[in-house]
Amino acid sequence: MRVTQLLTILCVLFAIPAFAQDLPKVSMQTNVGSIVIELDSERAPSSVENFIGYVNSSFYNDTLFHRVIDGFMIQGGGFSPKFMRKQTKSPIRNEANNGLKNLAYTIAMARTNAPHSATSQFFINTVDNPNLDHTAPTGRGWGYAVFGRVIDGFDVVDTIGTVATGSAGPFPRDVPKEAIIIESITMLTGDEAPSGSATQTKQSTDTASDTQQ
Q1: What pTM did the predictor assign?
Q2: Which CATH superfamily is domain 23-202 in?
Q3: Which class for 105: exposed (0-12), middle (13-18), buried (19 or more C-beta within 10 A)?
Q4: Taking a C-beta distance cutoff of 8 angstroms, is the pair 27, 34 a contact?
Q5: Where are the beta strands (DSSP E) in 48-164?
Q6: CA–CA separation, 65 and 2 (whole Å)
Q7: Of 2, 111, 119, 150, which residue has the fewest beta carbons closer than 10 angstroms?
Q8: Which residue has the higher pLDDT, 106 or 201?
Q9: How do beta strands 25-30 and 33-39 pair?
Q10: DSSP β-ladder status, 122-125 and 165-168
Q11: Residue pLDDT, tens place only, 150-176
């Protein structure tokens, strides 16, 4: 009887994660393919809420990945294909002290040199970038807030990360010579969203200077 009770307790304990609230996921459709991103609303609640607000208002539709640095990151979410800067909401507080690291295929908030200046722009790390992690609540140490991770479409991230770049619009360098356009970003329901279990081999774990222009 005691063995049966023990087995029952163990089954319940191991089942708890299955009943935990699923993290939200989005599908980013670009002109070179789609990327699915899982958002860590538990450890980066403000950043995720901010990002989802822009997603639900269709803010990111028809915007550019306007900054690409091979071996570093890809950045977007702020400019139209004609390099018009989009009007954003107020900046949010930096959550880079949430324990999440700027590992390859994580998504983080872009900002100016001011620690709490992030609005709509984001970047996806294409390699591990520990120099972007939070180290201290100081101007140089705040770091860049990771708020999610790619769970599908790694090849699309890799493709974008290695495109030829040059000058365009107001930027003297790092702009894709052939426009990389975010056609849309939409929320995924449970039935639509991949679990990520088959794609986590691309992750390092569970998961720049000025990265906003």
Answers
A1: 0.84
A2: Cyclophilin-like (2.40.100.10)
A3: buried
A4: yes
A5: 63-69, 73-76, 106-109, 122-125, 146-152
A6: 60
A7: 2
A8: 106
A9: antiparallel
A10: unpaired
A11: 999 999 999 999 999 999 999 999 999
Q: How many residues does the chain have?
A: 213
Radius of gyration of the chain (CA): 18
The one-letter code for the residue type at 84 is M
Residue that wins the pLDDT comparison between 125 and 17 = 125
Q: What does the pLDDT look like over 72-84, one tens digit per residue?
A: 999 999 999 999 9
User: In terms of C-beta density within 10 A (0-12 exposed, 13-18 middle, 19 or more buried), how is residue 127 classed?
Assistant: middle
Cα–Cα distance, 61 to 57 (Å, whole number): 9
78: three-class secondary structure by DSSP: coil
Tokens (6 digits) for 180: 């990389």
Q: What is the pLDDT of residues 85-133, one digit of tens each?
A: 999 999 999 999 999 999 999 999 999 999 999 999 999 999 999 999 9
Helix/strand/coil (H/E/C) assignment for every residue in 131-158? HHCCCCCCCCCCCCCEEEEEEECHHHHH
Tokens of 162: 């290695």
Which helix (H) or strand (E) element contains residue 27? strand 25-30
How would you label 68-83 residue by residue, b for 16+ Cβ within 10 Å and e otherwise?
Answer: bbeebbbbbbbbeeee
How many C-beta neighbours within 10 Å does residue 170 have? 11
Give the whole-angstrom CA distance, residue 63 versus residue 79.
Answer: 5
Residue that is written with structure tokens 């970038």 in the block: 129
Q: With contact defined as beta carbons under 8 Å apart, do 211 and 120 qualify?
A: no
